[in-house]
Design goal:
The chain has about 270 residues and is mainly alpha-helical. It has one domain (about 1-265). It is about 60% helix and about 10% strand. A hairpin with a 3-residue loop joins β4 (about 110-115) and β5. The radius of gyration is 19 Å and the shape is globular. Bound molecules: zinc ion. Zinc ion (ZN) binds near residues 145, 204, 207 and 242.
């Protein structure tokens, strides 16, 4: 009973706040409609602070050549996406983005992109990406998650489920640790903070499709995506949430990518 009473003030305050922050938007290219309860500016403010915190707590790679490749590939894809969005009247969709690409020394096969274009690659994924075109497969996919604002949707959902629909700023005030943990979990970093969020199949397929198109726009051959996922499939073993072989299953993922190849190639400029 006590618990119920305690929840009310937060619920009422947050309901009023969320109504003013509800944001309906459309994912570029796929046209999927999404409803975001958390504002872009709140998502990015948190992303920028969590990103610099992560870089402080993790060791950057000292391999100059590999680090430069990650930065070059990221910039090349981000530039192509920004140009495409500007040319098609969607420039405002990327407002507030501040792209950054870093390689950390960690043998987990992982990579992620937080809201606003904050990317981290782990050295552990490089044996699978092999070369710059392979790297572009993962880079395109991660950039796609940020451009399609999947983190915002995931966080909106979690705020609804766990925080009674509270606004992010309210939740941060009331439950700072839980809110930060939830935020990190929304980007596949849950295992490091003790929370795991299953990745949505819709988001993964959407990021695969957009990623394929984005890498093609930047002049990387989209066919490399199929080769990369075949290598991931063959690796077996434990993978981090972002690259779980079961979600979507590798063979379905590969089939899906093959079916998108004709469309992706329309964007491919050699
Ligand atoms: Zn993904």
């Amino acid at each position: 009973m006590k618990k119920v009473i305690k929840k009310w003030p937060l619920f009422i305050v947050s309901l009023m706040l969320s109504v003013t922050l509800i944001n309906c938007s459309t994912v570029p290219i796929t046209g999927r409609k999404q409803l975001n309860l958390v504002s872009d500016s709140e998502m990015m403010a948190m992303s920028f602070s969590q990103y610099s915190q992560f870089l402080k707590e993790n060791k950057l790679s000292t391999n100059k050549q590999q680090t430069e490749m990650v930065k070059r590939c990221g910039k090349r894809i981000a530039d192509a996406v920004v140009k495409y969005m500007n040319d098609n009247g969607h420039g405002s969709h990327l407002e507030g983005f501040d792209w950054e690409f870093n390689l950390v020394d960690d043998n987990t096969p992982n990579a992620w992109c937080m809201p606003g274009g904050k990317v981290v690659f782990y050295t552990g994924i490089l044996p699978y990406t092999q070369d710059e075109a392979g790297l572009a497969v993962v880079m395109g996919h991660e950039i796609a998650h940020a451009v399609a604002k999947h983190g915002n949707e995931r966080m909106s959902h979690q705020m609804g489920v766990q925080m009674g629909g509270a606004a992010l700023s309210v939740a941060l005030d009331e439950k700072p640790e839980e809110t930060k943990a939830m935020y990190m979990a929304a980007f596949g970093l849950g295992s490091q903070v003790g929370v795991l969020l299953p990745y949505s199949r819709t988001h993964e397929y959407e990021a695969d499709k957009l990623g394929l198109i984005f890498m093609a726009m930047a002049g990387y051959n989209p066919e490399e995506a199929v080769e990369f996922w075949k290598r991931m499939a063959a690796s077996g073993g434990q993978k981090p949430p972002e690259f779980l072989s079961t979600h979507p299953a590798d063979e379905n993922r590969i089939k899906n990518l093959e079916s998108l190849m004709v469309e992706a190639k329309q964007y491919y400029k050699k």
